[in-house]
TrEMBL record:
Name of a matching Pfam family: Exo_endo_phos
Record-linked SUPFAM superfamilies: Cysteine proteinases (SSF54001), DNase I-like (SSF56219), P-loop containing nucleoside triphosphate hydrolases (SSF52540)
Biased composition (Basic and acidic residues): 364-376
Disordered, as annotated region: 364-383
Record PANTHER family: ATP-DEPENDENT DNA HELICASE
InterPro entries reported in the protein's UniProt record: Endo/exonu/phosph_ase_sf, Endo/exonuclease/phosphatase, OTU_dom, P-loop_NTPase, Papain-like_cys_pep_sf, PIF1_helicase
Domain OTU intervals: 426-551
Residue intervals passing through the bilayer: none
Natural source organism: Rotaria sordida
Entry protein name: OTU domain-containing protein
MF annotations from Gene Ontology: catalytic activity
Length: 566
């Protein structure tokens, strides 16, 4: 029997002659017909007849190693573990949800689109150890509302039986598909909501804002939901803009949450989780939507308020007097209806798009006293870590970047960095040129202000000082020893070089992308996750760095294929 005719059959024993194999894959097809190794007999063995198609071999060599992400859920009383999912039918997907490996690890399971119209049905969907609260679409909309009689919708929350929970109803009747709880111990308000595509965004956000007005501005509030507004879009983000004005930030912004790689599901917070990797998108096989999980430290996470110090005032005057094109810091009146007392507080939430940071209390840090005065200078760095092998290999292999025309963005010839960035829908943000420009640009990426360049420089130097043995081989000829380098680089107004840039990327757990005219963007590795990126530009003629963002004021994300890695 020929191998072609044997395709599709499975036998207990087979004798294979390899001398007449003439194509790639024939060996695999023949060998895979037998059930066990003991039933395989080879004659006329020709090892050279077993080979892979060169195209398949090439693709396999290009594929990156997949690392299974570990769950960010923390099994500690200090942490609140939350799972949110647009389940698209609790009745049909209940068993899949109940048996998902993360479900029983969550303290709260928040669902939208349950598609249950009768609350009497919820007894069929209980999970041992959890209490279920469900509200159908029909009971949340007035009888004259167009969605009242429309099928679908419905929101639900499962919470652990041992949790102290208070259900909060709105002080006025709202046509808003939502459930609101207050966790008494954690002192966090949870709002789970859903906006149907048939509902106008303006109507939805107006009702949601009316609901939010009943809460004190110092409350920790987390809004979970599918609002059918894609955060990847550059226009028509009415809901995101409105919530941002109230100090809320979508921590899953620019992360794909559906099978079609759109970002519809969101988690808006008015506080910043300070634990590393406090969010994650988890794949599901039974819904168009993926699941979102968050682990929040209810003790450490604080609502961000801003108290301006004399140092901040001096810094602000320096920024404002340097260039009229730089954004001014505007103070919002305390009588404002907004949920933050100052615009810095609002910006402080805005800065954490797609980022989570690890706090480090460093008593030996030179700027520790400065941070005590300035609570907005959140400790986002980890100076106690050790350099990774990847980072040290990068320093060893650092060389000239390849020509920019190798980056596949078109055949256009650019006359300036501005044109080069515009093709990528990017632009530069003006940075003061005083020798601190690199740290100012990174500060702008993180905080939307250049103020915190001194803290970033200090922490990077502390990191190098604690890892002298690893970094002393990479000191340039300008310095005789690593100690000379540290003495020079820790001074204000000193230009940054490759070593301090590498250190900054490492302590921030961020990949720093450097754009330079005529060259491919260079990735300075600081994180294993490609979506953790900070973008700056470099002009070699005046050794000046500037911040790079897209035209929507967001930090861009580029793929590995578009970057130079060494």
């Amino acid at each position: 029997m020929t191998i072609h005719k044997a395709q599709g059959i499975t036998v207990d024993q087979v004798v294979i002659s390899t001398k007449d194999f003439f194509g790639s894959g024939m060996g695999y097809t023949a060998l895979s017909r037998v059930r066990t190794l003991e039933g395989l007999f080879l004659i006329d063995l020709r090892v050279d007849k077993f080979y892979c198609n060169e195209n398949v071999d090439r693709i396999l060599s290009q594929m990156k190693e997949m690392k299974r992400k570990t769950s960010i859920f923390r099994h500690s009383p200090e942490f609140l573990n939350i799972l949110f999912h647009n389940i698209e039918g609790l009745k049909c997907n209940f068993n899949a949800l109940r048996n998902h490996y993360l479900t029983r690890q969550a303290d709260l399971i928040c669902l939208t689109e349950t598609w249950l119209n009768d609350n009497n049905q919820i007894d069929k969907f209980t999970i041992n150890g959890y209490t279920l609260i469900h509200k159908s679409r029909s009971c949340l909309f007035s009888t004259n509302h167009s969605l009242h009689s429309q099928k679908g919708g419905g929101v639900a929350i499962y919470y652990r039986d041992n949790m102290s929970v208070k259900t909060i109803d709105s002080t006025e009747y709202l046509d808003l598909e939502h459930i609101t709880l207050k966790l008494e111990k954690e002192k966090i308000i949870i709002i789970v909501c859903y906006r149907s595509p048939q509902e106008a965004k303006r109507n939805f956000i107006e009702n949601l804002i009316r609901h939010l007005k009943q809460f004190d501005s110092n409350e920790h509030i987390l809004i979970l939901g599918d609002m059918n507004e894609d955060s990847f879009q550059t226009k028509s983000k009415t809901i995101e803009r409105s919530l941002k004005k109230l100090g809320f930030v979508n921590t899953f912004r620019h992360l794909a949450t559906t099978n079609s790689l759109t970002s519809l599901d969101c988690a808006y917070l008015n506080f910043v989780p300070c634990e590393k990797e406090s969010k994650q998108v988890i794949a599901t096989f039974y819904s168009f939507h993926e699941a979102l999980i968050l682990s929040i430290n209810s003790i450490k996470d604080k609502v961000h308020n801003y108290i301006e110090t004399e140092d901040d005032i001096d810094e602000r005057m320096e920024v404002n007097s340097t260039s009229e094109s730089l954004p001014l810091i505007t103070t919002i009146s305390y009588n404002s209806n907004k949920r933050k007392s100052t615009s810095i507080g609002k910006k402080n939430n805005k800065k954490f798009k797609n980022k989570t940071f690890l706090p480090v209390m460093d008593k030996n840090n030179d700027s520790a006293n400065y941070d005590k005065k300035n609570p907005d200078s959140t400790k986002i760095t980890d100076v106690n870590k050790s350099p990774s092998t990847r980072e040290l290999e990068f320093l060893s292999n650092l060389k000239e970047t390849v020509p920019f025309n190798n980056l596949t963005i078109g055949d256009s010839r650019f006359h300036s960095l501005t044109e080069q960035l515009r093709v990528l829908n990017l632009r530069t943000i003006a940075i003061i040129g005083d020798g601190n420009c690199f740290f100012r640009a990174i500060s702008d990426q993180l905080f939307d202000t250049q103020t915190y360049h001194r803290r970033l420089r200090s922490d990077a130097i502390t990191y190098i000082r604690r890892n002298i043995a690893a970094f002393e081989f990479f000191v340039s000829d300008e310095d005789n020893t690593i100690y000379d380098y540290i003495f020079r680089m820790e001074k204000n107004y000193t230009y940054a070089d490759h070593l301090i840039i590498m250190a900054t990327a490492s302590i921030l757990n961020q990949n720093i992308i450097i754009h330079e005219y005529g060259k491919r963007p260079l990735l300075i590795p600081g994180s294993d996750y490609i979506d953790r990126q900070l973008h700056i530009s470099y002009n070699p003629y005046n050794q000046h760095y500037e911040s790079v963002k897209d035209f929507d004021e967001a930090i861009p994300i580029m793929s590995f294929d578009d970057l130079q890695l060494t």
